[in-house]
Amino acid sequence: RSSYPKPRVYGGRLWTVRVAVEGDLLSYLARHGRPIRYSYVPRQWPLSYYQTVFARHPGSAEMPSAARPFSTELVTALVASGVVIAPITLHAGVSSAQPGELPAPERFDVPASTARLVNLAHATGGRVIAVGTTVTRALEAAANASGAVQPANGWTDLVLGPDRPAHVVDGLITGWHDVGASHLVLLEAVAGADLVAMAYREAVKQDYLWHEFGDSALLLPTRPRYQSDCVGQVRRSGREAANKRRHMTEVGNETRQVR
Fold first, then answer.
1. Which pTM value belongs to this model?
2. CATH code of domain 25-257
């Protein structure tokens, strides 16, 4: 079981600084910076190892690692089978929080096109699958009180948990997280504590690999998703609606890691 973060508790390990450099900051970081490397990674790997197939916009401190297993070929196959791929951006912060420490606020952008696709998927009986906890946080931060997603951007300090369940995401693809990480609270908010616990028991039994270069899981709860009247206003009929129900919308994070 996860440990719920303590309200208003942020760690003091991270500092915000303004860097005075000549020229472009990203070019400076490319020359002098290096990716965050955890102890299990045997050597320093190039930044290209930390980018995903969805990556477009620089800004993350760490890789949104749930998308790492996706290749161009896999995305093409998913689209060919009827899966709709929708982009969002959430610039991932440092994920190595202390037990009980709140995740830091993160900058995000949910475009109008993605909001429309997500709402349409739900209105026609489809499912919305988030590629990672970053996508989940962004989509849920963009949801209004009725559960419909609206275009949104800015900073989010949203923490999903017992007091704030998931209203938008029907399932998610994710890596494996350490005990006590706030990511586990988010997983439970989407998939339920029992399913998450069962998945982790199986992962330990099968000796799955943890962290950003490890194995992945697809968590699909069987309980019905909360649906609002606002989302349900869109209706389709006949064979078109039946075909739509077999499809899903998958949302990927377009952020790129910087040094």
1. 0.79
2. 3.40.1780.10
